[in-house]
Amino acid sequence: MSPTETDEYKNVFYVLGLVFIEIRATENLSKAQILADVFHNVPAMINRRFSVEEIMAEIDRKSVRHGCGRMISALLETAAKRADGACNDFVNRM
Predict the structure, then answer these.
(1) Residue 27 belongs to what domain range?
(2) 19 φ/ψ angles, rounded to the nearest 5 degrees
(3) Those residues with Cβ within 8 angstroms of residue 63's Cβ, 6 or more apart along the chain or in another chain
(4) How far apart (Å, rounded) are the C-alpha atoms in residues 43 and 27?
(5) For tag attachment on the chain, is the N or C end more exposed, with fewer CB atoms within 10 Å?
(6) Maximum Cα interatomic distance, the chain, rounded to a whole number of Å
(7) Quick one: which H or E segment has residue 6?
């Protein structure tokens, strides 16, 4: 995967990291199962070069089906802000 492709997916990678942390930290088995269902196809979609828009549409579709659309939207917004900030911090340190 080229640096340009990695940049394209940076928010997706970041949110996957947050999801793994949420799954590991939760004591709620149902929440862990829902998060796993919503996100488990994302790595394969990246590997198959789905666009970020297609990946986000799939995440949105599954989260709405599980009734957790707002929670997932908030997670995605947090990831976008933090990923952008982390990248900017890295560039500024160079």
Answers:
(1) 3-93
(2) -65, -45
(3) 38, 69, 71, 72, 73
(4) 25
(5) C
(6) 43
(7) helix 3-8
**Could you tell me if 20 and 46 are in contact, meaning their C-beta atoms sit under 8 angstroms apart?**
no
Of the CA atoms within 13 Å of residue 17, those in its CB half-sphere come to 11
Tally of domains within the chain: 1
Residue 11: CB atoms within 10 Å: 21
The mean pLDDT of 20-43, rounded to a whole number, is 96
DSSP secondary structure, 18-71, as one string = HHHHHHHH---HHHHHHHHHHHTTHHHHHHTT--HHHHHHHHHHHHHHTT-HHH
What lies within 8 Å, CB to CB, of 8 at 6+ separation is: 52
C-alpha–C-alpha distance, residues 13 and 52, integer Å = 11
Residue carrying structure tokens 């990923």: 83
Tell me which of 85 and 57 has the higher pLDDT: 57
Gyration radius from the chain CA atoms = 14
What is the token pair recorded at 71?
A: 């929670």
